[in-house]
Design goal:
The structure is a single chain. By secondary structure, this protein is an all-alpha fold. The protein has ten helices and two strands, in the order αααααββααααα. Helix 2 runs antiparallel to helix 3 (47-76), helix 4 crosses helix 10 (234-263) and helix 7 runs antiparallel to helix 8 (180-208).
Length: 271
């Protein structure tokens, strides 16, 4: 996770400069090397190699792979950024459902940098005008208070979500009295809720706005975490966990669209 974040930040310029085809290929190389090296580390029972291949090399592949489709899709679909990025990031939850031949066909046929297209804006008089939002560089974005506010919101939402994911199964057994089998089933459903929340919340954000969605996230999560600490009922426990995880997934998918709304798409990968 650490190197996912670092590579996404520091290699964003590489993605913008070389386009999605080359950056996607670079991601695949790093991630594949990380997985093969992890197999070697397990075979040799080497903790150092595990950190190197799984943590460092695999993390870089994951980070570059994360920002490659996100930065491309917000440029292709400026009027439905939430829905577009939600579909892409949902892949983190539903990746196993995507067929290899289909991905190969899409890459060969459609994956290239889009031409800059202005957004349409409806005026009060009913006429449609073209709006080209100001695009910030990463350095310019770093000088705004909005960047740091969103960074902290993102950090907090992810910390809460990952903290719950890490202990969901043992909590279900110890707090709610669920059997190991029932807890395992809950964890499987969490994966679906995580992926589904990404597309659902990001689509909602296209209609009610990104700011309103994040306000909802924190209201819901504060209430859900409070109730989670009070309940021992298995059904209510699972409902609360699913609600929190949906907000966690939605927080991921709404952020790229929110950043593009505020800072444009010029250096969105780096931002």
């Amino acid at each position: 996770i650490l190197f996912l974040g670092l590579s996404a930040g520091f290699l964003g310029g590489f993605v913008e400069k070389h386009g999605p085809r080359r950056s996607g290929f670079t991601s695949a190389l790093f991630f594949s090397a990380g997985m093969l090296g992890t197999a070697l580390a397990v075979h040799l029972k080497s903790l150092a190699l595990l950190y190197l291949f799984y943590g460092f090399i695999g993390g870089i592949g994951l980070g570059v792979g994360y920002i490659t489709p996100v930065s491309t899709l917000v440029k292709w679909f400026p009027n439905n950024r939430g829905f577009a990025t939600g579909l892409a990031i949902m892949g983190f939850g539903f990746a196993s459902l995507i067929a290899g031949p289909l991905m190969q066909y899409l890459v060969a046929s459609y994956l290239e940098p889009p031409k800059a297209q202005p957004q349409e804006q409806q005026t009060k008089s009913g006429y449609t005008t073209l709006l080209q939002p100001k695009s910030y560089t990463a350095a310019q974005a770093l000088k705004t208070w909005q960047f740091y506010a969103l960074w902290w919101i993102f950090f907090t939402n992810i910390t809460c979500g990952i903290g719950l994911l890490a202990v969901a199964s043992p909590m279900a057994q110890e707090v709610a009295g669920m059997t190991p089998e029932a807890a395992a089933s809950m964890v499987g459903i969490i994966g679906l809720i995580n992926g589904g929340g990404r597309i659902a919340w990001s689509t909602v954000s296209d209609y009610i706005g990104r700011r309103s969605v994040y306000v909802l996230f924190f209201i819901i999560e504060i209430a859900a975490f409070y109730l989670l600490a009070q309940t021992t009922n298995a059904l209510l426990f699972q409902i609360l966990v699913f609600v929190i995880i949906s907000c966690y997934g939605g927080g991921f998918s709404c952020m790229p669209a929110y950043l593009s709304d505020l800072f444009g798409t010029k250096e969105l990968s780096s931002i």
